[in-house]
Amino acid sequence: MSKPIVAIVGRPNIGKSTIFNRIVGERISIVEDDPGVTRDRIYGQTEWLGKEFSLIDTGGITLEDYPLDVEIRSQAEIAIEEADVIVFMVDIRSGITSLDENIAKILYRSNKPVVLALNKADNPEQRERFYEFYSLGLGDPFPISGSHGLGLGDLLDEVVSHFEDDSLSIYDDSIIKFSLIGRPNVGKSSLVNKILGEQRVIVSDIEGTTRDAIDTPFVDEEGQEYVIIDTAGIRKSGRVYENTEKYSVLRALSAIERSDVVLCVINAEEGIREQDSRVFSHAHDEGKSIILLVNKWDAIEKDTHTMQEFEQDIRTRFRFLDYAPILFVSAETGERLQKLPELIKKIYESRMQRVQSSILNDVLMDALAMNPTPTVNNKRLKVFYMTQVAVGPPTFIVFVNDTELLHFSYQRFLENQLRKNFDFQGTPIKIIPRKRS
Ligand code: GDP
Ligand code: GDP
């Protein structure tokens, strides 16, 4: 299931990031490569009236070496491309500027709902000017104040009223949804082409959704259906902003959200980069199953140790992904790609597997016998019972005498025992301690 996406567009200094921060709050900031610089927070998740959505601040996607109008036009295009609802922000104090008019023209041509926000309406006199803005032809304007937090409720009411139920694209549960994530030029698009080229049958009639134009469905020889999420974002369309890191991160984050399995692609020629670990760890945090693909394996010089060294390096850099298989592949030669759908399917199945409580508790009892629970401050941890409460990812509640006593290391030990006894390859496991009352 995917959440609707709302994008904020407007000239610089209009208050976009102020509003973004007000709406998303401090709770969930995802893109933050430079703490303290609000600009780097361009994608967040929040909810209004119980409706969850993702919010994008397009002002954060900047283009170096381009004039302001090109940059703003790109931001408006990104909003049209990515968002279900667009919030167009202007400054109520300055009236309509020519740049505002240009943005309005671009938005006007899209058929996305646009909500017009008049920011910096800090007091009643300023709010009085709202009628001028009807001339933009975008319907009722909503006066707001980012600094004072005024008018945001009405604005958000309007925004969520445009969410359509069928904009939440939901593929049938039997369809495996996966995406390819990685920096520009790691070979995502080549990999998609190669994967699709290997499949004998490609279908286009998987239950239609409003988003399927950007996704690619296919079916393997055994009839298993797959959807490659956001193939449109992977293929090049020639836009100027396409190869910027921020845009590719943004695209990756929303693709991750809609996927069951995420293929994290690393370029063998370049090795691991900082951005890789940020995006990959987001996939992990979201509980997605993960396969690490080291692409362009054909292009590097190898001796008998190269693969092992590379693997070790990845394991060290991505400790939290120890459950993820690593595949050394080449989109150029097709090396190890033939079996990829099979692996994705296997991982999806482990992700969705449900373990019976009786079997689970036999494993738990053996684990407790093998490694007795620790004593912390003279208090001994007691583990009573474990039960699986969810799949995708597998989630277990473990009942204990005191949740404070279940430290990370013992939790880790329990996780390892689960992995030893059941096949959870490629998938994160969640263990939630509960006090037994
Ligand atoms: P952005 O470039 O569109 O993201 O704009 P910012 O959020 O960075 O805000 C630009 C400036 O406008 C900052 O100095 C903010 O403090 C200020 N600002 C934002 N919202 C308001 C508002 O509602 N009223 C007033 N007076 N200033 C605001
Ligand atoms: P994307 O930006 O991640 O979608 O990357 P592309 O698929 O556009 O690939 C970027 C460049 O790397 C292109 O010139 C590809 O031909 C090249 N490339 C992709 N995969 C491989 C590979 O496995 N081996 C080699 N040698 N080149 C590759």
Any idea what the shape is? globular
Q: State the end-to-end distance.
A: 35 Å
Query: What's the CATH class label of the largest domain?
Result: Alpha Beta
Unreliable spans are 27-39, 208-212
Whole-number average pLDDT? 87
Major β-sheet, in short? 6 strands, mixed
Secondary-structure class: alpha/beta
Which CATH architecture of the largest domain is right? 3-Layer(aba) Sandwich
Bound molecules: guanosine-5'-diphosphate
Could you state the oligomeric state of the chains shown? Answer: single chain
CATH superfamily of the largest domain: P-loop containing nucleotide triphosphate hydrolases
Based on CA atoms alone, the radius of gyration comes out at 24 Å
Number of domains: 3
What percent of residues are in strands?
15-25%
Helix and strand pattern: EHEEHEHEHEHEHEEHHEHEHEHHEEEEHE
Number of strands: 17
Order the strands across the largest sheet as they lie in space.
2-3-1-4-5-6
Predict the CATH topology of the largest domain: Rossmann fold
Instruction: Please give the count of helices.
Output: 13
Helical content stands at 25-40%
Brief overview, please?
The chain contains 13 helices and 17 strands. The chain has 437 residues and is an alpha/beta fold. It starts with a strand and ends with a strand.
Structure description:
InterPro entries: G_ENGA, GTP-bd, GTPase_Der, KH_dom-like, KH_dom-like_a/b, P-loop_NTPase, Small_GTP-bd. GTP 2 binds at residues 182-189, 230-234, 295-298. The structure is a single chain. With 437 residues, the protein is an alpha/beta fold. The chain has helices at residues 16-24, 68-82, 98-109, 124-127, 152-161, 188-198, 231-234, 245-257, 274-285, 306-317, 340-351, 357-370, 408-421, and strands at 5-9, 43-48, 51-57, 85-91, 114-119, 141-143, 176-181, 216-219, 225-228, 261-267, 289-295, 326-328, 375-376, 379-380, 383-390, 395-400, 430-435. The strands form 4 sheets. Strands 2-3-1-4-5-6 form a 6-stranded mixed β-sheet, with helices on both faces. The protein is globular and about 75 Å long. Mean pLDDT is 87; it is low at 27-39 and 208-212. Bound molecules: guanosine-5'-diphosphate (2 copies).
